[in-house]
Sequence to fold (257 residues):
Amino acid sequence: MGAPVSSVVQAFAIMRVLADDRALTLSEVALACGISPSSCLGLLRTLVGEGVLHTHSGKRYALSPPWTGIVAGDNEAAARFVALARPLLENAARNWLAPVGLWRVSGRDRLQLVALGEDVAATRIHMEEGQRQPIGGGSVGRALTAAQNVSEDEIRRRFSAVRWQRPVTEADYRVQIIAAAARGYAIDDGLSHAGIASLAAAVSGEPPEFCVSVSMFAGSRSDGEVSRIGGDLKALAEQLGTATSGRRSTSTKAKIA
Fold:
């Protein structure tokens, strides 16, 4: 797969943000999509010119029919998928005594935690649904980068955008992505968040847009436990991949209808 065209990715991010009859200002759209206001303005004007968007109440932008139904349908399908995934995340969190998250690509540069299975241990790692991180950061970033098979330039761009807690070279980052592709899950041992080790496995998709993760205190599990949890996490991602393939099929039928 070649490198994604950034303007196209950003245009679709704008359309998703404006789903469900939302009408937002330039600054609101730019903030939600992680795009600079100047770039966002150019995209908004282009989408208005192509009839995808229309101006609403002067300074707000909204989706035009039939785009409203198409994008809203995709978001509804995603919401159903998240609802299906939630009990699986909660069950895994209880089994592993660690928080298990479902992440989704948000725009070109960010990942968002859309569902969380919380563990019941007395001392817990704090995570909140809705939190975001750079698309290349953590084990989630490596797992998705491996699954998406992005270009060398895109790997460099993602690596450079992360503020690492511990020193890591771009060469090491690339080796970790290769290892994630071979193993089926990625590992971040305190590089992105000091004292936290995380594993992540991408959920299959075209292209992959979801990823599951589990976070643990660094050094709290043996190598054997980490390997076992990694294998189980990969199996969970595969189970969710079967569900999301059904979601894509349903969404496609709705659009054709």
Remarks:
- Residues 223-256 form the longest helix (34 residues).
